[in-house]
Amino acid sequence: MKHSHITNALLIAGVAFIPTLASAEEAVDENVERIEITGSKIKRADMESASPVSVITAADISMSGISNVENLLQEMSFSAGVAGNATNAYWTSGGYGTAQVNLRGMGIKRTLVLFNGRRVVGGGTGANSSVDLNMVPTSMIERIEVLKDGASAIYGADAVAGVVNIITKKEFDGAELNVKAGITDENDGENQDINLTLGGNFDRGNAVLSLNYTNTEAVRQSDRIDCPKFGTEAGTFECFGSSTTEGGRALLADGSQVQFSQDENNPTAYGPYNSAEHGFDYIPYLNAVSPMERINVSSFVNYEVNDSVRLFTEAMYTKRKGEQIVTPRNGFAGITVSSDFDYNPTGQDLEFQRRRNTELGAPFFFQETDTIRIVIGLEGEFDNGWGWDAAYNYGRNTGTDGWTFDIDPSKAAQTLDESICTYDNSNGIPCGNWFGVNQLDQNVIDYVKYRREGTGGNEMRTWTANLYGDLFELPAGIVGFAAGVESRTEKGWRDPDSTVLANGDEDPINGSYDVTEAFVELSVPLLADMPFVQSLTAEMAMRYSDYSTVGAESTYKLGVTWRVNDALMIRGVQSTAFRAPVITELFGGTNGENLRTIDPCENASDAIATNCLADGVPANFVQDGTTVLTSVGGNPELGAEFADTTTVGIVWEPKFVDGLSTTLDYFNIEIEDSITSVNGSDMLKLCYEDPQGNSQFCDTFSRHPVTKQVIELNQRPVNAAFEKVSGVDFNIIYKTKLFGLDSKTSLDVTRLLTHESTPFAGQPTIDKVGFITEDQGSYTQWRSNFSFSLISDDWIATYSMRYIGGADDVNGGDFDPLGKSVESITYSDLSASYMLNDSLTVSMGIDNLFDKKAPYLTSWNDANTDVMTYDLLGRRGFAKMSYRF
């Protein structure tokens, strides 16, 4: 085991700490269920929630050493599926470069993200709905409340799977400098986080200013794995390369496929393609961690206008820069060349199929975004004790993204057409020798190469007003009331690069919608102080939403909390939710993406083999590569989707075990008319399983007339038939004395029971439970998080574990037996913090303590694993410092 780099990192002077607590004792004083929590607009100190809520405190964040909110949330047991993060080799859907959360694996669009209880503008590079979780620096977070229940009646659309509410520190007195640095055991992946917080009280209020800088360095996949692999029947691995090869491949007029020379000493040679000999090693051109640089400036001001009215403001600016290395560009599929073209060595007409243009080098995919958020409002109380608030919430995000260079396919085609190009470049359009490696003239490279850059943005304007208080008193207690109205406008736009637009590879996007909403919420005490009923309270809410795009909808919530006695409470919620289609789903134009796709006609059997043969696909068919050009975009005919959610749980705090708290919750979410896009592999499989019954899927793709390779797929969102997700959450927290010290033990476990989707009525149901999918992440049955802390007056130490259960690869089988399933894996982390004095605290830690490697999977070529679930970096350490002055 190597420790030298970790040891060095932990000994670096002046290295780092995310904000510390006032005392170590406070790190463990959080209750299982907070009293004032996300999920209700009724503000009452004695209210208990019928909905399950997980609370991640500042102490949890501090002891983790994590600098990004994404990592913290994506590692929790309630997360599943895919969401954007730094370890995605490519991340295109839902906002380039944004960090997201996916509750229950139901998709990022079904998790509502709030900052201080209010909505947030999308944070990508244009016309997207994904909030960038990393807009808020971790040092400014007071806590994160995760409502694991549908909440459309309280917050409106999008809160189908739940709500993530990031609550910031709004009051601060003094100055605090926090510095953190980390490095992996391989001496790479350096990251730094610096934060300065200034705050103070004045005569009638408080002001806080936070300045934050975060930087993460790149880690290449080639620094973690040797090559792409697949399993053999002999129980060994073999390396393979991409079928988009150097030198180029072509289909000749006689129907044969050839590979052009990869030997500069024999430039005109060509012959049959051999994947073992000609495949391109693309791993050096993918990131295990993508570099990112972020600057954030935040301010919060509270001002007491008079004894009953307060002014509050929130202002935030975030600039994010990121980049990911991209494999050398292709841009050649479908270009035809005449037999008499001088550089054509075959003597036949041909069609280029693929070419890896390494002569141009490897570009970088880059993003730069600027996001501002301003909230200004008033809140106060009336003489009768009722409270109110009114606020204006403005957010605007603008972004630029693209490649440092790309190939213009129309110009590339011109360099292969003698009627257009000249061999001496006399007309400025040079003929190109694309037939073999490193035969290109610089004039050709300069002619076809261009910087690709698109722009876009998102904007949100929201007015809200709320009223809350006590209506009247019943025998069992006081009836709580809240009501409010909201008016919101959202718009998004994206303008592709002019060359991309001219070639028809991407369409512009421009759309907007308005929504007006009103809600009412009641908390009604039904019974109290009776045998077996210490209290029984009903929670009711209803919301009316009128969208300019899908019309008006109403949602409701009915919850019950039954406190049997001081130790036992039973709770349950039945609610409805809906989600209106977002701008990209409605107005998004065509955009071509090379997406991971498995062709079922390779190694087919039974009905699929028969139907593939009937479609002209030969029995010995071998898929050419693992990606297919897929047209994605919007569907203006989309309607809203509707959900019924049920949560039933128990909260138990036994008196015979002091300090023990447990919760057990069952959740069930059923969605009708769900907005979804069936992925390419599933569309192909459904088509060939039953071409007549699943005929709509057979119209979504086309095959090459000669090679029978799938050359294009069409994947657009539709209102599908049905989705269902259910499972069980278990939580236990135990606080006690151990060795004369305070201790805290916590365990969170999620058991996923069902995760089904039925594309259309009468179609087969797809169940993801127990599977790792090819492009939608992991849906393992079991996930859990465990932590144990020892606390003294001046230090705290924490050992934590993250468990991911075993699962089968959805495409595993005879083709790749070594990657058809993975066993469970447990990651361990260790951290400690010591308060040197009242001003200075130092901390250090090791993540992935035992250097667990990511498991090999059939369906994933990026790093041979599911980069959205497993740890690619290996063991790494961090050191932190906080100084308050």
Topology of helices and strands:
Elements: H1 4-11, E1 53-57, H2 58-64, H3 69-74, E2 111-115, E3 118-119, E4 141-147, H4 152-155, E5 162-168, E6 174-184, E7 191-202, E8 205-216, E9 219-220, E10 229-231, E11 237-239, E12 249-252, E13 257-260, E14 270-272, H5 275-278, E15 287-289, E16 292-306, E17 309-325, E18 336-337, E19 350-354, E20 364-381, E21 387-407, H6 409-414, H7 442-448, E22 449-474, E23 477-495, H8 498-502, E24 509-530, E25 533-547, E26 551-563, E27 568-579, H9 583-587, E28 591-596, H10 606-614, E29 627-632, E30 641-652, E31 660-672, E32 675-676, H11 680-689, H12 695-698, E33 701-703, E34 710-715, E35 718-719, E36 722-738, E37 741-758, E38 766-767, E39 771-772, E40 778-779, E41 782-791, E42 795-804, E43 807-809, E44 821-822, E45 825-835, E46 840-847, E47 876-884
Parallel strand pairs: 2-5, 29-34, 39-43
Antiparallel strand pairs: 1-4, 2-3, 4-5, 6-7, 6-47, 7-8, 8-16, 9-15, 10-11, 12-13, 12-19, 13-14, 16-17, 17-20, 18-19, 20-21, 21-22, 22-23, 23-24, 24-25, 25-26, 26-27, 27-30, 28-29, 30-31, 31-36, 32-35, 33-34, 36-37, 37-38, 37-41, 39-40, 41-42, 42-45, 43-44, 45-46, 46-47
What does this entry look like structurally?
- The strands form eight sheets. The protein has a 22-stranded antiparallel β-barrel.
- The protein is globular.
- The longest helix has 10 residues, at 680-689.
- A hairpin with a 3-residue loop joins β25 and β26 (551-563).
- Residues 1-36 and 89-94 have low confidence and may be disordered.
- The chain folds into two domains: 4-224 and 289-326 and 366-405 and 454-590 and 633-677 and 716-884, Beta Barrel (Maltoporin, Chain A), CATH 2.40.170; 591-632 and 678-715, no CATH class.
- With 885 residues, it is mainly beta.
- It has twelve helices and 47 strands.
